[in-house]
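Example 9 (inverse folding). The structure is encoded as follows.
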């Protein structure tokens, strides 16, 4: 069985004659007739009724025809994929995203890129604190969406596009706040549990950011777990502003205002790529789309 025979089956079934099929396929009528007979012999099935003026599918032929259409469609998709890859387009690209980034803000860009390059898989890799930047540095990711400090930018290794400014807010549940009605200093919370998300970066393993010496901590590996723990009243900590907007409005979470500890930390999220790395066509278009997203905001 060949794809050529399946194409003959399709055209004869849809056009009803060898003559019409031969004109579409640019083959002689005897060649198409022979191809159909060979297919029937290979399948040990009669595919067409030949008594009438027009050739029509038998009941068995109708089922084979439906399967043939699927195979021909898959073959065409395979051909398109091969053409796509031959042109230098990537089979997949990886985007490392700092977990505090509001993913909803990039969905239109991802959809735009995927619609233009449907054969490329976009892999989203969620990272924490320094993890996204390290993923780009180690070339485990093509691009990163993360906050980056000025010293890293001034190193000259990265190209960056500003996206938006977000915040990490220091919060706790009402029952937690009730335990500290006159809270003024972070030192008063040393025996409470600060809920901390672990850094996925390797260079900063073992370093706790914004954690005082001697502080009791619970460690979570994602912000949803951290939020659940904080809302239960077990502990306190910082969460992305977009994750707690409703909770703050409904007073199911309260901002912790402490004299010597910032209630909010601003994070300037940027799209990051290595200057020394040549991106493929799809990653380049994603980068350009991120630039357009910033311009349009």
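The amino acid assigned to each position is listed next.
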């Amino acid at each position: 069985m060949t794809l050529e025979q399946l194409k003959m089956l399709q055209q004869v079934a849809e056009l009803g004659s060898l003559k019409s099929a031969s004109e579409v396929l640019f083959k002689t009528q005897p060649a198409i007739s022979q191809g159909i007979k060979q297919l029937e012999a290979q399948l040990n099935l009669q595919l067409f009724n030949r008594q009438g003026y027009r050739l029509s599918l038998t009941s068995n032929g109708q089922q084979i025809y439906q399967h043939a259409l699927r195979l021909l469609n898959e073959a065409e998709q395979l051909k398109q994929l091969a053409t796509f890859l031959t042109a230098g387009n990537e089979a997949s690209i990886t985007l490392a995203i700092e977990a505090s980034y509001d993913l909803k803000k990039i969905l239109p860009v991802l959809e735009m890129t995927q619609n233009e390059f449907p054969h490329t898989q976009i892999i989203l890799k969620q990272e924490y604190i320094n993890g996204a930047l390290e993923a780009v540095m180690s070339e485990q990711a093509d691009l990163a969406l993360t906050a980056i400090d000025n010293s890293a930018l001034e190193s000259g290794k990265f190209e960056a596009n500003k996206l938006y400014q977000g915040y990490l807010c220091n919060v706790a549940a009402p029952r937690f706040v009730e335990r500290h009605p006159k809270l003024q200093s972070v030192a008063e919370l040393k025996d409470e549990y600060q809920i901390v998300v672990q850094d996925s970066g390797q260079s900063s393993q073992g370093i706790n950011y914004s954690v005082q010496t001697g502080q009791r901590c619970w460690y979570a590996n994602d912000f949803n777990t951290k939020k659940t723990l904080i809302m239960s009243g077990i502990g306190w900590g910082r969460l992305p502003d977009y994750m707690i907007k409703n909770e703050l409005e409904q007073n199911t979470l309260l901002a912790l205002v402490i004299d010597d500890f910032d209630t909010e930390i601003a994070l300037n999220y940027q799209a990051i790529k290595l200057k020394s790395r040549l991106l493929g066509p799809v990653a380049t278009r994603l980068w350009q789309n991120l630039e357009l997203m910033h311009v349009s905001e």
